[in-house]
Design goal:
30% of the residues lie in helices and 24% in strands. The chain has 191 residues and is α/β, with parallel strands linked by helices. Helix 1 links the parallel strand 1 and strand 2. It is globular and about 45 Å long. The chain starts with a strand and ends with a strand. 36% of the residues are buried.
């Protein structure tokens, strides 16, 4: 498949999932792959009625880089990843185009962090992206680090040899007190 969206869900995410889907489906019709990290049968059926399910193996639940492992299993040529705490407010088509860079990866900064960090809640990538492969390699090499996924992201985004796209805050709006009419995705990591 050419383009699609992925998100990860676990037990207890049912309410957030339905809100995410309601906002997503108002503005987008791309296929969705739900990465199942232990959801109940009722939620599995609901997800299967809306998109496809990718079940996470029990062994993978304890890794420090679960999201990266799921990216490598994406069925799409171009994928947008959004965490469930994202409120999708517009068509996501521009994100696919932003992954058309040398290393096939687009991400934004975390504007709330005290130091420059990259926000892993929203990003886009192309199948075969060297960035994703290097992210996984970093996580494997540093598997004893419980924060390997986030640390790997920071390490790679600051690598001058990698050419990625940095998204504007339009695709990762984090100012809860200011509702921008231009924001395509509101992100509330504390939800």
């Amino acid at each position: 498949m050419e383009k699609g969206v992925m998100t990860l869900l676990k037990s207890g995410d049912e309410k957030t999932l339905k809100t995410w889907w309601e906002n997503y489906s108002k503005h987008n019709a791309y296929p969705v792959t739900f990465c199942d990290l232990g959801i109940d049968e009722k939620t599995k059926k609901w997800c299967a009625s809306k998109g496809s399910l990718l079940t996470v193996s029990k062994d993978a639940k304890n890794t420090a880089f679960l999201k990266v492992e799921m990216l490598l299993k994406s069925p799409y040529d171009k994928t947008i990843w959004t965490d469930l705490d994202c409120e999708i407010r517009k068509d996501l088509a521009p994100l696919y185009e932003m992954s058309e860079c040398k290393d096939g990866f687009a991400i934004s900064y975390d504007t709330k962090a005290s130091s420059m960090q990259y926000e892993g809640g929203v990003f886009a990538f192309k199948k075969g992206s060297p960035f994703v492969d290097k992210w996984r390699d970093y996580c494997i090499k540093n598997s004893s680090d419980a924060q390997a996924e986030q640390n790997g992201l920071k390490h790679l985004c600051n690598d001058p040899n990698l050419r990625i796209t940095i998204l504007s805050s339009t695709f990762n709006w984090q100012e809860a007190s200011i509702r921008s009419p231009h924001a395509a995705i509101y992100r509330n990591p504390s939800s």
